[in-house]
UniProtKB/TrEMBL annotation:
It comes from Triticum aestivum (Wheat). It catalyses: (E)-coniferol + NADP(+) = (E)-coniferaldehyde + NADPH + H(+); (E)-sinapyl alcohol + NADP(+) = (E)-sinapaldehyde + NADPH + H(+); (E)-caffeyl alcohol + NADP(+) = (E)-caffeyl aldehyde + NADPH + H(+); (E)-cinnamyl alcohol + NADP(+) = (E)-cinnamaldehyde + NADPH + H(+). One of its GO terms (molecular function) is zinc ion binding. Pathway: Aromatic compound metabolism; phenylpropanoid biosynthesis. PROSITE patterns: ADH_ZINC (PS00059). SUPFAM superfamilies: GroES-like, NAD(P)-binding Rossmann-fold domains. This is cinnamyl-alcohol dehydrogenase. GO terms for biological process: lignin biosynthetic process. It holds the Pfam family ADH_N.
């Protein structure tokens, strides 16, 4: 129905809302099924995007299952959105119909605080997430497992021509999540030694950015079976098995920084021992339980290993020695000044910068493209870490078929 002369602005806006369909979780079972939704009408500063691809982030799995106890149902996840502009509001200057664009983890902020003014919208107290959040108009945000989205132009980035949309979509979360701390903690300097803890969706991208920056990159993993892939497929310079005491000892005090992508609770003290004095460990993984950090691990590191006196052999022993009745104990000391920090995605300016640099150096995510009908199976596989390294949903070619008979919110 066309708006009448007496219709209010709110009524006119409602009359011009856009119908869409998505894959939604209705409860903490996390099962995703088709759901008809509406998107807001196109505002003067908005960009309307036809979604072509959307990556599946591990946080999507946590969210749909309410692992973080903040779920708002129905929930349509997805914050690694790649698509094409179909419409632009009258005040939009950066985009036009046909442009290749992306949307990451946030779709709005207050746009006026100190953080926003400096380009760090990700630090804004009023930041609004792409899904499972309440937008400024009071509506629930729905993510990229859907046919289209309407977003303020400030929170849209342009895909460089050299960047494929499917392999580039995960960079809008995984890419900026590792790029931002590398930039702001000085772990982007050629010749420096970067450790990447964990070789999953975040870790494999961190390796690629480390190499793009000209760094020496060592992957630290509890899985020896990932060594060949890390070295030969991803281009890492070295591989350390975190459960191998000898390999950990050999790598002590060699790394300028570590990007910690692991979401499990693991012993932290041995990892700090890998850092040089003044080294930094940046947390981008989110363990469900609090981590334990012995204060001594930040101040100094010590590694002891007994050498038997009963072998009758001569030993070339480095380091400080302590003699007992049956053993000489090697005690390796290194000074501390270690830093433990955290990082949460990045601002919009940095996200665009990251995409441009990735395109220049050929950095993309390693993906498995799936259809919308496969998404629940993909979530089961993701829970088992059975993906190398990111699922990406082919929204444009498969969602309509999967959503032939959706439920409705109306």
């Amino acid at each position: 129905m066309a708006p009448t002369a007496t219709a209010t602005a709110a009524e006119q806006s409602q009359q011009h809302t856009k119908k869409a369909v998505g894959l939604a979780a209705l409860d903490a079972s996390g099962h995703l099924s088709p759901l008809a939704i509406t998107r807001r009408s196109t505002g003067d500063d908005d960009v309307v995007i036809k979604i072509l691809y959307c990556g599946i982030c591990h946080s999507d799995l946590h969210s749909i299952k309410n692992d973080w106890k903040n779920a708002k149902y129905p929930m349509i996840p997805g914050h690694e959105i790649a698509g094409e502009v179909t419409e632009a509001g009258k005040n939009v200057t950066k985009f036009k119909a046909g442009d290749r664009v992306g949307v990451g983890c946030m779709v709005n902020s207050c746009q006026s605080c100190e953080s926003c003014d400096k380009g760090f919208e990700n630090h804004c107290p009023g930041m609004i997430f792409t899904y499972n959040s309440v937008d400024r108009d009071g509506t629930l945000t729905y993510g990229g497992y859907s046919s289209m989205v309407v977003v303020h132009e400030r929170f849209v980035v342009r895909f460089p021509d050299a960047m494929p949309l499917d392999k580039g979509a995960p960079l809008l979360c995984a890419g900026i999540t590792v790029y931002s701390p590398m930039k702001y903690h000085g772990l982007n300097v050629p010749g420096m030694h970067l450790g990447v803890l964990g070789l999953g969706g975040l870790g494999h991208v961190a390796v690629k950015f480390g190499k793009a920056f000209g760094m020496k990159v060592t992957v630290i993993s509890s899985s020896p079976g990932k060594k060949q892939e890390a070295l030969e497929r991803l281009g890492a310079d070295a591989f350390v098995v975190s459960k191998d005491a000898d390999e950990m000892k050999a790598a002590m005090s060699t790394m300028d920084g570590i990007i910690n992508t692991v979401s499990a609770n693991i012993p932290m003290a041995p990892l700090f021992g890998l850092l040089k004095p003044n080294g930094k460990m940046i947390m981008v993984g989110l363990p469900e339980k609090p981590i334990e950090v012995p204060p001594f691990a930040l101040v100094a590191s010590k590694f002891t290993s007994p050498i038997s006196l009963a072998t009758g052999r001569n030993h070339a022993i480095a380091g400080i020695l302590r003699v007992t009745d049956t053993h000489i104990v090697r005690v390796a000391e290194c000074t501390g000044n270690k830093t433990l920090a955290g990082s949460c995605i990045g601002g919009m300016r940095d996200t665009q910068e990251m995409l441009d640099l990735a395109a220049k150096h050929g950095v993309t995510a390693d993906i498995e493209v799936i259809g919308a009908e496969y998404v629940n199976t993909a979530m089961e596989r993701l829970a088992k870490a059975d993906v190398r390294y990111r699922f990406v949903i082919d929204i444009a070619n498969t969602l309509d078929k999967a959503a032939a008979a959706p439920a409705t919110t109306e």
